[in-house]
Design brief:
320 residues; mainly alpha; DNA polymerase, domain 1; hpI Integrase, Chain A; three-stranded antiparallel beta sheet; two-stranded antiparallel ribbon; 5 strands; Integrase_SAM-like_N; Tyrosine recombinase XerC; Integrase_recombinase_N
Length: 320
């Protein structure tokens, strides 16, 4: 019996996985392609082109007033669809573009960070401290593998960060004991999973085929494993993933509310604080750039605008 032809959105997911896009990107791209099709009354994209893409993007900017980054993500999704799934070139896109916003990150003082962290408990407290002490993104912290923590060299190897780049960042010595306890917990969990015939963790790309036994090895396990076994999106394979990001996001929002912070605060705020506080301490901006994994130093320069010494580090004449 022949298999039914795959639907368009299934083809999109397959193409994204072949090219090793993250699951979050896959969900976003599928979302925008679906929105594009519905906007044009369910016409098939192969029967449309640049004009329809421009109309959709203009609608997002003018009617829905989305940000420039959101509109750019929608455009990237549609270009991926045409180039890598439909194998069609659509030519230049001349849609009305959303106005880029001049974004300044939310940064807390050291005292505010200390109060925020003190409100957290358990694994969320450790994870939040690690993000602040290393400058990792939330996804990078959650995907951290046992083998990538180096207590001897005092660093963390961040694998496959944003832009599929590896980098080295700081391992706060003040967290050694807590991290060792977390690793001991994760190891006990892993041993129980192995005893149940489980214990295989997700490996990126084709590593599971290249190293058939690696997925059950201790070094490849997550430092922050989930409390439960679940089906893997896309494949349906049951395994233990890492903690869900929503747990820390919710815990930090509650902690900020508890201490009366009026600023919008989330896990990524800790990364902003890491960079800003290092610059305030006098560390070279190129060093901070490398620790953050920024491709361009201009991205890192934004933190000079939110340092406690005022915009660009200038002292007000009123303060003498």
């Amino acid at each position: 019996m022949s298999q039914r032809p795959k639907k368009l959105l299934e083809q999109v997911s397959d193409a994204l996985r072949r090219k090793h896009y993250s699951y979050r990107t896959e969900k976003s791209y599928v979302h925008w392609i679906k929105r594009f099709i519905l906007f044009h009354h369910k016409r098939h994209p192969k029967d449309m082109g640049a004009a329809e893409i421009e109309a959709f993007l203009t609608h997002l900017a003018v009617t829905e007033k989305v940000s420039a980054s959101t509109q750019n993500q929608a455009l990237s999704a549609l270009l991926f669809l045409y180039r890598h799934v439909l194998d069609q070139e659509v030519g230049p896109i001349n849609a009305l573009r959303a106005k880029p916003s001049k974004y300044l990150p939310t940064v807390l003082s050291k005292d505010e960070v200390s109060c925020l962290l003190d409100q957290l408990t358990g694994v969320h407290a450790l994870l939040a401290r690690l993000l602040y002490g290393s400058g990792m993104r939330l996804a990078e912290g959650l995907r951290l593998r046992v083998k990538d923590i180096d207590f001897e060299q005092h660093h963390i190897l961040v694998r496959d960060g944003k832009g599929e780049k590896d980098r080295v960042t700081l391992l706060p010595t003040s967290l050694y004991d807590e991290l060792q306890a977390q690793l001991a917990y994760a190891h006990r969990l892993h041993q129980k999973d192995l005893a149940r015939g489980l214990g295989a963790v997700y490996l990126p790309y084709a590593l599971s085929r290249k190293y058939p036994n690696a997925e059950r090895e201790w070094g490849w396990q997550y430092v922050f494993p989930s409390h439960r076994i679940s089906a893997e999106p896309g494949t349906g394979i049951r395994r233990r993933h890492h903690l869900d990001p929503s747990g820390l996001q919710k815990a930090i929002r509650q902690a900020a509310k508890a201490i009366g912070l009026a600023k919008p605060v989330g896990p990524h705020t800790l990364r902003h604080c890491f960079a800003t506080h290092l610059l305030e301490a006098g560390y070279d901006i190129r060093t901070v750039q490398e620790l953050l994994g920024h491709k361009d130093v201009k991205t890192t320069m934004i933190y000079t605008h939110v340092m406690q010494r005022g915009p660009l580090g200038v002292r007000s004449p009123l303060d003498g």
